[in-house]
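Design a sequence for this backbone.
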């Protein structure tokens, strides 16, 4: 049997199947032998986790990365095609090849988590600490239907846990880690621990962390208000091996008592998230069956936070959100012979949302005397079915074809505003409408991977992906700016209104990835992914009102196109010399997006950007210098009054040393203390608020120079 040997061939999706066949337990009996053989075939095929466009971050790279930021999404920052809408220090929204936020499918331990906030302050990756992450896989190119569904962008899979077991008779193994980090730019500190007990039949893991930061300073030494945060996380993982099955349980709890949002009028003043995921992976003579069920519960509170409360005209306004994600995922993997693998799946995802804003005494009729119901008893239910066939035609040629249907039903109850006088007309009009909507969305993927020579491989194909609107896009109902300015996950200070007649988005994507390397895949590699996506019924906006510093926008279907190029390259410069070994790595991303109805640029397109890292490693040391360069942002969306941002270049240094189980890292980011504007950071609403709404909205500035210290002790 042949195994793929790309540098990215880091298996994670099939870890459990491998454990069934790697000799930790000697199989006895024919049925078990068949089951292990089936699992082995699943393992060897598996284009999913070994494809050219799948990138996995784990191990040392992950440990390095998490000493740098308390924001879990930032673990992905070195990957090609990735950028971030920034806002809160823990809650940035990833963008993959120009497609952002909840258009990406993000799964934490197999469970999708929906942001439950009209500003998307609590997206999936913000619900756990970076230290809890055991591995991340990113599907950036053509996402297989088994990894997609109700998403037009790529897929990000985060695992906090990979069950492992000892051989019988090896007793019990205890392992764990302690870590701490500190950053001078915002006086942040982070602490965490993990503790694992592993036996032959069961394993147990617990982890916890605390993170705290003040406001950061920009390159001019000015404090960027409302960039502080504080969070606490706890995780529990259990796994048990019962015959040919592995049962898992993951439970997580997170509290974020405060997190400032410099590009929003509101801050997070409380967020509690609890999650439970149970899983069962079973080997049968016919293949592998995986079942997962999850429940995630988020209680979210917004108001103006500690910085905004000190401004001349503090505008207190409590806003509460409660969301739950409940569902299951069933996947069967059935090998046919040695060369074909059929995947069948079914999933159900029931999301519920309530968003209500209590009255503020003395402010009627604007903000009282009643409770404002933004989303009342909202539901978004997804029922998906898929089939996917992976075929190996020769050791050099693999194809994958899949089809998937998702039925999405959305609905909300009737609403009321703070007062009849100001909000009654809108509420009556909305309540008179039929709210329930049903969509039936079809996805298709057809891709091939070929390796014509030992020094080149190509992956190419076509994907059609669909996504229904989120609840705010369909049902945010108020036309009063006081209320519609709160519906905004773009950081652009505009007012947003929903549109119950929105249709699902349908994206057609063509993509090819070419990878060229030396035959041993050690000395060098260059990888390029050009892509083109046409999106039918893309949910963009129409301008329905203008004011001096903002527009009132309504979500509306438009046609759009996106195209771009992701490039990565790496080379070994020297090895085994007195200086250890040296590597040069680089990534570059280019993307353009256009509303083809209006000819305008799509919002928040990351300008051309590149990162080059020279790294020197020896037995104990890792030293690196990194250059990050970002071009001017000139492609902007005038409908959102999006500002241009200047180009910039940053230099970062880091040095790490091991002493047995202790690793210490010292880093210097933004070495020259360069002042720069974040191209996807939105507008600094705080400054405008502090100046009594004088109308000076500027892009949010990035972090100035920071001395960073991190240490990890493993035992
Ligand atoms: Cu919020």
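Sequence:
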């Amino acid at each position: 049997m042949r195994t793929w040997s790309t540098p990215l061939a880091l298996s994670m999706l099939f870890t459990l199947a491998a454990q069934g066949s790697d000799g930790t337990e000697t199989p006895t009996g024919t049925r078990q032998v068949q089951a292990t053989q089936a699992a082995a075939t699943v393992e060897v095929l598996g284009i999913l986790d070994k494809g050219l466009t799948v990138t996995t971050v784990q191990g040392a790279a992950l440990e390095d990365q998490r000493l740098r930021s308390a924001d879990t999404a930032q673990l992905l920052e070195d990957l090609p095609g990735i950028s971030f809408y920034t806002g809160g220090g823990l809650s940035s929204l990833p963008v993959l090849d120009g497609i952002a936020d909840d258009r990406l499918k993000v799964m934490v331990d197999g469970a999708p988590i929906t942001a439950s906030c009209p500003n998307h302050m609590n997206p999936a990756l913000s619900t756990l600490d970076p230290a809890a992450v055991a591995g991340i896989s990113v599907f950036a190119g053509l996402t297989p239907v088994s990894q997609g569904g109700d998403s037009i962008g790529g897929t990000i899979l985060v695992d906090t846990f990979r069950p492992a077991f000892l051989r019988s008779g090896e007793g019990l193994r205890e392992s764990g880690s302690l870590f701490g980090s500190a950053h001078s730019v915002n006086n942040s500190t982070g602490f965490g621990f993990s503790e694992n007990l592993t036996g032959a039949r069961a394993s147990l893991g617990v982890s916890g962390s605390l993170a705290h930061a003040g406001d950061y300073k920009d390159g001019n030494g000015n404090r960027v208000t409302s960039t502080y945060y504080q969070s606490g996380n706890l995780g529990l993982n259990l796994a048990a091996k019962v015959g040919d099955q592995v049962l898992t349980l993951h439970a997580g709890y997170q509290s974020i008592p405060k997190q400032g949002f410099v590009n929003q009028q509101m801050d997070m003043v409380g967020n509690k998230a609890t999650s439970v995921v149970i899983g069962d992976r079973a080997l049968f003579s016919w293949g592998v069956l995986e079942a997962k069920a999850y429940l995630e519960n988020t209680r979210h509170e917004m108001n103006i936070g500690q910085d905004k409360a000190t401004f001349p005209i503090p505008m207190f306004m409590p806003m509460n959100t409660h969301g739950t994600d409940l569902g299951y995922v069933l996947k069967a993997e059935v090998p046919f012979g040695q060369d074909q693998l059929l995947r069948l799946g079914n999933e159900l995802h029931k999301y519920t949302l309530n968003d209500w804003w209590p009255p503020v005494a003395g402010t009627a009729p604007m903000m009282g005397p009643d409770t404002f119901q933004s989303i009342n008893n909202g539901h978004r239910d997804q029922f998906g079915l898929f089939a996917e066939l992976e075929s190996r035609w020769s050791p050099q040629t693999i194809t994958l074809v899949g089809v998937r249907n998702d039925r999405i039903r959305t609905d909300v109850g009737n609403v009321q505003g703070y007062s009849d006088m100001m909000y009654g007309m809108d509420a009556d009009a909305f309540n008179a409408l039929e709210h329930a909507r049903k969509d039936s969305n079809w996805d298709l993927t057809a891709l091939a991977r070929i390796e014509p020579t030992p020094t080149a491989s190509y992956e190419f194909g076509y994907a059609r992906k669909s996504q229904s609107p989120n609840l705010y896009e369909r049902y945010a109902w108020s036309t009063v700016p006081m209320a519609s300015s709160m519906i905004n996950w773009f950081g652009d200070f505009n007012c947003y209104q929903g549109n119950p007649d929105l249709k699902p988005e349908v994206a057609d994507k063509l993509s090819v990835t070419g990878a060229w390397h030396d035959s041993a895949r050690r000395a060098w590699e260059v990888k390029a992914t050009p892509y083109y996506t046409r999106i039918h019924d893309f949910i963009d906006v129409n301008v329905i009102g203008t004011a001096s510093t903002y527009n009132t926008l309504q979500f509306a279907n438009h046609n759009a196109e996106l195209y771009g190029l992701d490039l990565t390259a790496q080379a070994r410069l020297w090895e085994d010399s007195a200086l250890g070994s040296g590597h040069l790595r680089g990534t570059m991303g280019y993307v353009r997006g256009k509303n083809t109805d209006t000819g305008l640029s799509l919002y928040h397109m990351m300008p051309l950007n590149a990162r080059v890292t020279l790294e020197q490693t020896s037995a104990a040391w890792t030293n690196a210098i990194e250059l990050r360069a970002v071009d001017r942002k000139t492609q902007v969306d005038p409908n959102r009054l999006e500002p241009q941002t200047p180009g910039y270049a940053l230099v970062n240094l880091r040095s790490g040393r091991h002493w047995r189980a202790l690793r210490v890292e010292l880093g210097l980011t933004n070495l020259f203390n360069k002042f720069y504007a974040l191209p996807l950071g939105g507008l600094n609403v705080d400054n405008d608020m502090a100046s009594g709404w004088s109308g000076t909205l500027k892009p949010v500035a990035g972090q100035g120079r920071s001395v960073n210290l991190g240490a990890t002790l493993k035992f």
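Residues 117, 119, 121, 268, 300, 302 surround copper (II) ion (CB under 6 Å).
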